[in-house]
Structures are given as structure tokens and as C-alpha cells.
Amino acid sequence: MERITWWLVRHPWAVVIATLFLVVATGYGAKNIKLNADYRAFFSNDNPYLQAFENLQDQYNKVDNILIAMVPKDGEVFNTRILTLVEELTEESWQVPYSRRVDSISNFQHTYAEEDDMIVESLFEYSADLSEEEIQAKKAVALKDPVLAGNLIAYDGKATGVNITINLPGINQAAEVPEVVGFVREMVAKYEEAYPEVGFYLTGVTMTNNAFPEASAQDIKELYPIMILLILVLLFFSLKGMWGTLATFSIVVFSSTIAMGLFGWPGPEVTPTTLSAPVMIMTLAIADCIHILMSYYHGIAKGESKPAAMVESIRINFQPVLLTSVTTAIGFLTLNFSDAPPFHDLGNIVCIGVLAAFLLAIFFLPALMMLLPSKKVSESFGENTKMQKLSEFVIKHFRPLLVSFSVIIVVLIALIPLNELDDNTIEYFDWSIKFRSDSEMIADKLTGVQSMNYSLKADGEMGVVDPAYLNTIDAFADFLRSQPEVRHVGTFSDVMKRLNKNMNGDDESYYKVPNDRQLAAQYMLLYELSLPYGLDLTNQVNGNKSATRMSVQIDKITAQEIIALDNRAVAWLEENAPQYMVTEGASTAVMFAHITERNIKSMIGGVVGALFLISFIIMIAIKSVKLGFISLIPNLVPAGMAFGLWAVFDGMVGLGLSVVMGVTLGIVVDDTVHFMTKYVRAKRELNLKTEAAIEYAFHTVGVALTATTIVLCAGFLVLALSPFAINTHMGIMSALTIGLALIVDFFFLPPLLLQLDKNKNETDQSKGATS
Q1: Which residues neighbour 760 within 8 Å (Cβ) at sequence distance 6 or greater?
Q2: Confidence of residue 763 (pLDDT cuts 50, 70, 90)
Q3: What does pTM read for this prediction?
Q4: Nearest C-alpha neighbor of 42 from the set 339, 337, 423, 350
Q5: Nearest alpha carbon to residue 56 among 46, 45, 48, 67
Q6: Which architecture, in CATH terms, is 386-445+587-771?
Q7: Among 96, 377, 484, 610, which lies 20 to 30 A Cα-Cα from 450?
């Protein structure tokens, strides 16, 4: 490596020009990256909850939708002006691209008896011509009908909604979703101007899909500039000079460019999680440069020439920088074990970026520094009294430190079980994303913004009209309505009960399931023939009439509460329904409710395997099984301590935290590797005793470890500013873990070495000179 470095420092222009060409050639692929506008991107193809949801959508109308909620400021929906608004908006909503169905109180197909006939008509039609008495009569119908109340009209009548069912072609969803959302927003903006006394709010599956690329765009707009400014400031104070800062910053930018470019050549679609990769790469790329440049400046301070100082810096740092790059890459590659594909992309991109940063730091940085002046900043690297004092303190008090930190570590790890695997899909987005604020308002004023669907099989074709089947699903609906989390239940049995009443002269005593199968079949056929285009029963009944869908709107509840509700529903079916009717709930809410637990289980094997591989690599590198096992402790405990602290201050472990162990594993190892390699070098090459070797490690690498940790923590904390909760939680926990890793490496690893790695002939008072 020494001969290669000498060549690099003697031919700097050739190296710089070749590097620039390589960066441009690889980075050009980044233009092919597209933002993914589909929540399904978070689920693997073999995810059983995704498969169940896809099967549900194949049987019935798709549930992709946009719900436009209208909340009059005076709280009165049932007047001529607002009813006219609902009617106009309902009619215009049919023009939304890819719309398949539009439902509201306006076009709700109200049925009633008139002599021997059953009349089917829109509930509110030509609202401007309705008298006050007619409006009040229809209001009573709307607030009483189980299809509308708590769904498209608030139970208190103070809010209403228009639900647009969307059937995207799925050819280019990244373009289709923004097209639909853009059209709806423009349409709503027109009505907002015409009806300033009404608040308009949008939610639904399609709006959820659109929120993901919106969060990504906001990350790019806000986080990247903050990250760049932060890097420049921290580098300047760490390296105490402009030229080293600019050189390091160029490697930071080049590493991210190469990673995103190579990833982008196939034209992938990415999520907000994936787009946090450049922030991570920028943060991680700094560490290699700081270690190399600090050693380089130490050489300059001793009077060495620039080429000689750089060659020596690469010589002593090549192995630890290589080790840390490889272990960091391995840590991020464990994300490929995740059950959520976006984390696969995140891990692979960061892995490419970390390895690119290593190559640039080893081959490009030496050449670039030969072209830049450095003498003005070199003198500030000559003294290191703070690390000297810290090492003396740790050595002097190593026994109390060993005991106290052992207790702290055990206590914090013991707190880990207090964490709960939980999540809330709506809260993936903070209040700066309009989808979040609109969904919260709709949940408060109109209906549940999360849903569950049950596809309830009947006994064969046309089995949905069997009275026993209808009575069972009706009882199931009553059970669900009794659950505190449920806001609304839509069931086919309500339709059949209403038809039975209509066909018996609107006698309320007949508001029940028909007791004759043939009669029920005739009622359903008559009703279907009377329905207008787009408002048929395919949203509730499958094609061969062998199953019905029960839709359950629920409050904004957590993942564990969704799972608990579903478990109670399944238990009721097992106890009260035939076996062929027993099924689990299917919806986006159910899918996300299970994703954290599935993700953690899928990650465990990868993280454990990576840990053993990293430990084996360290043992080989430092040529010591004993020291390799000692290094395992500071590599493992920071994440355990972080999750223990999380249990105290938060306690909810969601999707973002489920991958933190994989994200931080390789990074945490970096500090240990640098400290241990310097410690081993002091003992083997300089023949220093344990205390002196520890002092040498603190002296040579302590400042660099502190600087890189500050940069890493600050970089990951930038993610805490993301509007996307997965990135926020991942950033906070990663920063906490990395910070704890430095504390463990400074205050727990040296006492461990003093306790376990002393030679028999060493005394507690022995103290070697530092180099």
C-alpha cells in the first residue's frame, strides 16, 4: 500500500481528473430514480397480509379512495346551500381520473315503498328545489341509515363527505397518483373559494400513497441543505482549517453521488426511507477522512513533508479504515433481511456509498491534499492534553468505572422488555404534511380514517341470500359495532333488512333479514336492476354471490390495538359462525399493524450473522481471539443501552426502530476497531504495557473518535427533522446508540482491557511512555 500511496501523491492531477470522470459517469444514473407513490412498496410479495388484501381487492371493488370531508363552520349540513355543494361536488367527482365510483349522501340510493312498488332514488337530488320539510325528512333518513351514519354523514350531522373510489391502471403509479391527487386538489380549491364557510379535508388510501413522495420531496428540500451546512461547520471545527474541510466535503458529495448513481441506473422507484441514504452516506463518509487527515496533520506538525506525512497516515490508518468500512457495509447489508423492501434499498445504497467513501479516502484524498495548502492548520494538531488527562483518569479509576458501568449496562438492558412493538400509520407523517392534519380532522369530525375488511364466505354460489348466512353476518356486525374502537360498520345484511322492510310496505317490524332464501334473492335482483351505473353492489358482494365484504371504519388506534380488535373479531367468528366463514381482517391498516413485528423477526437472523462475521473479521485483523471477544462487548451493549433508555422515555418501538440494530451495528464497531488497532499496535510494535498502550490509543485516536462521533450523531439527528416518522425515529435512536458507543469505548473498554488483558508481570503502577 505504501508504494501505491507514493504514486498517488506524486501524480495528483491524474488521480483527481480520473476520479472526477468516474464520479460523473456513475452519478449520471441518479436521474433515473423515481419517487414511489404506493404504500405496497413497504411490503414484500410474500407478505401474507398483503396477499390477503390483494385477494380482497380482486373479489370486490378496489378500496383505493379519496374521501373529501366537508365541515361547515356553523355545524349545519342540512340546508339548501350545503346540500347543493354536496350534490355539485358529487357530480364533478365522477370526472376525477380513474374514478370508478362516487358515494355521498346526495347520490345514496334511498329505497322506500309506494303502494305496491319499491322506489329507488338518490336521497338528495335537486336540493335547491327541496322545501325545509323535505330536507328535514331526508335528514332523518340519512342520520338513521346504517350505511350513511358515521360514514358519509357524521352521527351529529355536522360534517359530511364524498368518497371517490379510484381504480388506478398501475402502469405508472408514480405518475398516476399525483395526477389524481392534483385533479382533486384543484377541484376542491374551486369549491373552497366558492364556499369559504366550509372546511374541506382530504384523506384515503390514495392520499396516503401521495403522502409518501410528498414527504420525500420535503426531505430533499429541507434536510439536504441542513445536512450540507452542518457537515461544513463540523468539519471546519474538527479539522481547524478550510482546505481539509473542502477536501473531505468533496469526498462526502462524491460518495453520495456514486452510490445514488449506481443504484439509479436500472430506474428504481424509492420511498422516503430510501431517500435518507444520502444523509447517512454524507455522515459516514466523513469518518474515514477525519482519521486520515488528523494523522496527516500530526505528521506535518512533526516536520514531515506533505507526501511523507500522507504516506505514513495511509500506512497506519489503512487497516482500521478498511475494517470500519467493511464492518459498516456488513451492518447495512443486514437490512436486506428486513421484511420491508425499502430497507433493502437503503442498506444497499449506503453499503455502496460507504465502500465508495473508503476508496475515495484512500486513493483520491491523498492526491487532492497534495494540491491544497495545509501548513496554516497543522500546528493546532500538535498537542492533545485533554485526551492525556482523560486516559489518566480512566486508568486511575478503572475499577470503579468497570463496576459502575457494568451495573448501568445491566440495568438498561433489563429495561428493554418494557418497550412495546407498536405503531400508528397516520402518525408516520408529522403535522407539516397536510394528509396528517386532514386525517386527524376527519377522524375527529366525521368517521374513522383507518379500516378493516372481512370477506365472509357463504355456502356456495348465491349463498349470500341464505337467511342463516345473513343473520350470522348481521350478528357479527352488531358485535363489531359494540367494540369501542369501531366508528362504522358497512354490511350487506343492512341492505337486505332495508329491502325486506320496503317490500312489506315500510313496516318497521320487517326491518330484519328475510326468512326465505328465494324471496331474498328476488329482493336483491330487483334492487340491483334499479341501481344506476357505478353504484351497484360489487363493493359489497363478489361476482358469483358466494361472499360479502364487511367494511369496518375504526378510530386512529395503534398497531397493537388493531391486532387486538382483529383477534377479537376472529374469535367471535370461530365461536359463532361456520368454519368456512372464519377469516382475518384485511386492509392497509392491518398490513402496517403487523409490519414492525415481522420486520424485527426477519432482522434477527441477519444481525446475529453479521455480528459473528464482524467479530471474526476483527479477530483476524488484530490476530487475537481474546481481544476479539473483548471487543464484542462494546459492540453489543450500546444498542441494548439505547433501547433501555428508549423504554424509559418513549417505549413504543415502531418500523423505524426495528432496523436500528442493523443500521448502527457496523457504525458502532468503527470506534472499537480504531481504538483496538491503536492499542494492539502500541503493545506489539512499540512494546508498551497495557496502561501505556491505552494512553497511546487515547492520544492517537481519541480526538478523531470524538470528532467523528459528534459528526455522526449530528448527521443522524438531522433525520429527526424529517416529516416522516420512520426516518425521525431511526435517526434519533441511531444517534443515541452511536453516542453511547463512544462513552462505552472511552469509559468501559479500557477498564475491561486493564482487567482482562494485563500480562502477569505487569503491575498496577506500571506506566509506559506514550509515543
Answers
A1: none
A2: very low
A3: 0.82
A4: 339
A5: 48
A6: Up-down Bundle (1.20)
A7: 96
